[in-house]
Amino acid sequence: MTSNNLHVDALVVGGGIAGMQAALDLADQGYRVALVEKEASIGGKMIALSKVFPTLDCCSCITTPKMSAVAHHKNIQLLTYCKVQSINKNGSGFKADVVKKPRYVDETLCTGCRQCEYACPIDLPAAFDLNLGAHRAVRVPFSTAVPQYAVLDIQNCILCGKCETICPVDAIDFTQSPQEFEIEAETIVLASGYELTPTDAKKEYGGGQLPNVVNALVMERLLAPTGPYGHVLRPGDGKEPESIAYVQCAGSRDQSLGVEYCSRVCCMYAIKQAMLLSGALPLADITIYYMDIRTFGKGYEQFYQNAQAMGIEFVKGKVARITEDEDHNPIVRVELIDEGSPVVERTHDLVVLSVGMLPGYNPQTIFGVPVADDGFVTLPSPNISPCVTGQPGIFVTGTAAGPMDIVDSIVLAGSAASEAAAYLQAHRQPELVGDLRVTANEKKERVHA
Ligand SMILES: Cc1cc2nc3c(=O)[nH]c(=O)nc-3n(C[C@H](O)[C@H](O)[C@H](O)COP(=O)(O)OP(=O)(O)OC[C@H]3O[C@@H](n4cnc5c(N)ncnc54)[C@H](O)[C@@H]3O)c2cc1C
């Protein structure tokens, strides 16, 4: 397949774990798939995590093979740095207008050798590490990125030409411009994922203001073996924290934020991080301030009990406010519900806000897929068809459908692939069998008769 005016069976939008799994499941059944991802690499949020609950498997180790399988599958056309601009109904299928952003690097030449990155004199806050470290203006997005092509940030480039001079295959191309092309597909799977509630959404918690109040994704990067410091240090001054607190429901179950639902993963990821922290910093005190602990999945309650047995302190109470002392140590003001409800102030070295999930993308305008009051895709029959949207031929999977963990995202991706495959079979153009025109389903029935 070429990248110009593709014709495929299925278009998958979003290359996180859910989109990758749906694409692989369809491709393994012989369907041709185009996977469109807006970032320069696939992997979604999962590739940035440290380890996964409840098994504590290394996240990179389980995500990278999937990314590689997607990139090397003969039935998958991987289109990164691309966005769907518009969709039109095209007979029984869809025609998508897609635009590819310029990388200023020729993908047909780049080998991912990173010579350009080493030569570049410009340091910028590292997006993959949530601005904790630095990266160059031209760089491979992160060490396990797929595809391994460099991308140049033209806004911050000083056009010194050092990358161009050093590139052994002459892949740097300052003249690139956005490229438009079309994809014709018979079905679409939306897997556009989630974003986090902004860290500064609850002003009283000081996120984005107090240097030692961070969100949970920042902690994932601090804990990751490939993280910015190689060790857990507080961002404010590089000190090793001796007392770390988690504030639960810091972006979910909160009417004042308009986010009334539970984000389902925050309790489990806080418990996971607390366990990892007690391994990384054995002498540190770790406290989790919570309203309710929700551990709904297989093996999850046991995981919670293990954390309690390890000495992690669970304190029931909604945190009212976070301020800081003169050394930038966060001070948490909380009512201790299980101890007669006194209101106390406790000082920690680092506070992690367990922020929640918001929909990453609104597919209503472009895909005509209705969204519910919470912003996630509406599911007309959530109990019996959890991937079917209000738009015939378009299916949804992963956190684009609502908050969920990786296990559920994978399960739902398989389900979306099955729904899409069934739709493809049912809507195939009738073909000539003998002197009769029959649909694929009828043909299958004849074969099995
Ligand atoms: C701090 C934290 C820790 C977590 N830890 C765990 C854990 O240990 N275990 C666990 O099970 N779960 C964990 N989770 C949850 C886990 O991250 C999600 O369940 C999982 O990443 C969902 O995958 P997804 O593919 O649905 O979405 P995403 O990972 O968000 O992927 C969506 C992809 O779609 C792309 N995209 C979005 N819009 C468009 C568009 N318009 N066009 C093209 N591409 C688009 C995005 O760039 C992204 O690559 C954690 C979550 C957080 C916040």
Overall 3D geometry?
globular
Derived from helix and strand composition plus strand pairing, the structural class reads alpha/beta
The CA-CA distance between the termini, in Å, is: 36 Å
Helix content: 10-25%
Strand content: 25-35%
Query: Tally of extended strands?
Result: 25
Low-confidence parts: none
- The radius of gyration over CA amounts to 24 Å
Which small compounds were modeled alongside the protein? flavin-adenine dinucleotide
> Treating each run of at least 4 consecutive H or I residues as one helix, how many helices?
10
The biggest beta sheet reads:
7 strands, mixed
Average pLDDT taken over every residue: 94
Architecture overview:
- The chain has 449 residues and is an alpha/beta fold.
- The protein has helices at residues 17-28, 59-72, 115-119, 162-166, 216-223, 266-280, 300-309, 364-367, 406-427, 440-448; strands at 6-13, 33-37, 51-52, 57-58, 76-80, 82-90, 93-100, 123-125, 134-136, 138-139, 151-152, 179-190, 194-196, 213-215, 243-247, 285-290, 313-316, 319-324, 330-335, 343-347, 350-353, 357-359, 394-396, 431-433, 436-438.
- Strands 1, 2, 5, 6, 7, 12 and 23 form a seven-stranded mixed beta sheet that branches. A five-stranded parallel beta sheet has the order 14-21-15-16-17. A three-stranded antiparallel beta sheet has the order 18-19-20, with no helix packed on it.
- The protein is globular, with a radius of gyration of 24 Å.
- The chain binds flavin-adenine dinucleotide.
- Flavin-adenine dinucleotide is lined by residues 13-19, 36-39, 44-46, 49, 52-53, 83, 191-194, 196, 216-217, 220, 265, 269, 272, 360-361, 398-399, 404-407, 409.
